[in-house]
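Researcher: Predict the fold of S1/P1 nuclease.
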Amino acid sequence: WSRDGHRIVGHLAEAELRQPARAEVARLLAGEPDPTLAGISGWADTLRDEDPVRGKATAAWHYVNFGDRGCRFDPSRDCRDNDCVIGAINRSFLALSDRKRPLAERRDALKFLVHFVGDVHQPLHASPRRDKGGNDFQVNIGGRGSNLHAVWDRNLVGSRRLEPDAYASVLRRLPAPRDPTLASTTPAVDWALESCRLVDQPGVYPRERVVGDAYLAKHRPTAERRLRQAGSRLAALLNHALGN
Ligand code: ADE
Ligand code: ZN
Ligand code: ZN
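Model: C-alpha cells for S1/P1 nuclease follow.
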C-alpha cells in the first residue's frame, strides 16, 4: 500500500487496542517523531531511501510470490530463509512478544509488524502470478503509464480523496473479520492465501490494460475490505503480544 493505505490500517488498529497494549505501544514508541501506529506505519518503506543496506536486506519482507499453479504455500519455494512477508510477520510478532528482548529490537519489530500486516492484505503482495505482484503489468490510468501494482497500492484508495483518519472512521463501519484465536504463531499464511485468491478473481487484470472509473468503482470495495481486515487483525496481534 501507499503511505496513506498504511496510515489507514494504523488508525483502524489504534481504535481497537486494549489498555495494556496501548500502554506498551506508547512505551515502545516514545521518542518517535509521531508515536502512533499510523505515524510509524510507513517506516518500513522509507528504509530503502534512508538506510539502503537495511532497505535491501528487508526488501523481500513486503510480499510473497506463490507458484503459478494456484494458491498454495510451499515455504521452501515461496519463502526461502523465511524471507517473505509471512516470515517477517511471524518473526516480528515473536520479537515483539518477548519482553526479554532489548527495547530497540521490540520497537523495530512493532514498526515492521504494523507495516507488514498491512502489506499482506494488499492482494498483489501475495500473488500467484510471476509478474512481481503486477509491477510488470503495464496499464494506462488517466492517460498516463502506470502498472497494476501501483493501482492497487495507491489509486483504488486514493480515488476517494479522504484523509487517512477520516477514511479509517468510514471503514470502521464495515463488518469486522472473523478470525481464529491466536496460538503461538500468527495466521499470516491464511491472510496471504486470501490475498492470492483475490488476485485470481475475474477482472483484476484489466483486458485492455486501461484502468478507468469503472475499474476503480468495481475493485475499490475489495481494497477497502482488505484495509478493514488488516486493521482489526493487527489490533488482535498487538493485544495478544502486548497484553498481560
Ligand atoms: N517484488 C516482487 N514481487 C513483488 C510483489 N508481489 N509485490 C511487491 N513487490 C514485489
Ligand atoms: Zn505495494
Ligand atoms: Zn511495504
